Structures are given as structure tokens and as C-alpha cells.
Amino acid sequence: MAKKVKDAIDNGAKRAKSATDKAAKRAKDATDKAAKRAKNATDRAAAGAKSAADRVQGAGEKLRESSEKLAKQGSSVSLKMLEQAEANTREAFAAMRAAASAKSPAAVAKIQGEYLRDQGARSLSHAREIGELIMQFGRGAAGGKK
């Protein structure tokens, strides 16, 4: 009788250990998958941020080259373009920081979408400002009103 009780206890312990091992494996697998997804989302956000930074840097370099040419036409145009490049760079890095600290891929996508929308609006505003300055300079050079 004691052997049967001992065998029953041993079998119960084996089943409990097996169930615990299976649950632990499932929990580990789920954690690993979540960590992998988070890493992938972070990697995508970092790649997107780097791409944005590269575009901003390239735009900054182009703006610098353009500003050298425009300096001959008037320092106000050049200064305005540099201010805009600085503002764009600040906004890009702010978006990169926000994406890097995002808690989910959805938050990263939202941050990127907001950045792109805001960047489009900034680009239109910047183009208008530069156009107005160039027209003012042209009128001044032609002898008209400033």
C-alpha cells in the first residue's frame, strides 16, 4: 500500500514537473518572441531615424551650398535658410529620440507619421519664406520697394 502511495506521489510530481516545464518553455518562448519583436521595432525605428538624419544632413549640406551662392545676393536669405536647416535638424533629432523611447511599434509608426506630416508643413512654410525674401531682394535690386 505504501508503495502505491509513493508511486502515485512520484507520478503526480512527474506530471507537475512536466506541466511546469512546458509552461516555463511557453513563457520563455513568448518572452523571446516579444523581445525579438521589440528589437525589430527598435531596429526599424533606428534605421528610419538614421535615414531621416541622413536626409536632413544631405539637405543641410545642400542648403549650406545654396546659402553660399545666396550670400552674394543677400545675407537675409542665407540666414533664413540656415535657421530653417537648424529647425529641421532639431525636429528630426527630436523625432528620433521619441522613436527610440517608444514603447510599441505602433507608437514608432505614429511618431514617424507625425514627423513626416509636420516636416511637409515646415517645408511649405520654409519655401514661402524663402520665396518672399528672394522676391524682396529682386524688387530691391530692380529699384522697386523692399
Structure commentary:
With 146 residues, this protein is mostly helical. It contains 3 helices and no strands. The protein has a domain at 75-146. Helix 1 packs antiparallel against helix 2, helix 1 (2-71) packs parallel to helix 3 and helix 2 (75-100) packs antiparallel against helix 3 (105-141). Helix content is 91%, strand content 0%.
Concise account of the structure shown:
The protein is mainly α. It has three helices and no strands.
Q: Give the biggest beta sheet.
A: none
Shape: rod-shaped
Portion of residues in helices?
over 70%
SSE order, one letter for each helix or strand? HHH
How far apart lie the N and C ends?
Answer: 109 Å
Write down the overall mean pLDDT.
Answer: 81
| Count of helical stretches | 3
What fraction of residues sit in β-strands?
A: under 5%
- What integer value in Å does the Rg equal? 30 Å
Poorly predicted spans: none
Q: Which class of secondary structure composition applies to the elements?
A: mainly alpha
How many strands in all? 0
